[in-house]
Amino acid sequence: MIEFVRNVRLWFAPEEIRREGGTPDYRFSLANERTFLAWLRTALALIGGGFAVDQFLPDLRWGWRVGLALALLAAGVLCSLRAVNHWVRCERAMRRGEDLPVSRFPAVLSVVVAVVALAMVVVVLVGWQG
Amino acid sequence: MTSPPARDPGLQPERTRLAWRRTTLAGTVAAVLAVKTALHGGVSAPRIVVCALCCVLWLGFLAVANRRIHALATSPEPAALAPRHATAAVLCTVALAVCGALLIF
Question: Which segments of the protein form a coiled coil according to its record (chain B) (predicted)?
Fold first, then answer.
């Protein structure tokens, strides 16, 4: 947690990152940037999915619709915050010549998406019968 | 003593530029869906305010992306992305999601 707070400070303070270690090959930095952008797109897709659930499933009961939409929006927020945090951690690790940080976030996100998809299947089946 | 051979940039800057482009497209889709949600339940003052806020966030995101695209397109060895800009892009995304949560409730 303390590590996370320190990283949040780094999000806003480019000089502090630049003080550490040496500048890595710019191609590695660009690859790190593309990974960050891919995660940001994932976050935007989750947020767009939240809006889509709210707009395009009007027959769903209010609780399900709002619950699913808010879950997707929250997943999008988490995903985007984690994107910038992971990017900062990778950038620092490359400057210091350390191993890149590992993360269990991709696994967690996959499980959440799978659970939401299963919930949708159940909702659609129940909707057909009801 | 010869100078070290120049590093081949390959297509790295261009790939990164296109990644930013794709990300602005994803942001545009999310913003359009947000505006549709804002204006769906009838026109009222708070909804118009949130709708305008979504448009401002989208423009902010575009500004960050265009800055970076310009930097990548003009320099043969572009500097690494500044954390400020990464954070700005992420904050626009988070604010869009918060607007969505307000609208859906």
Answer: none
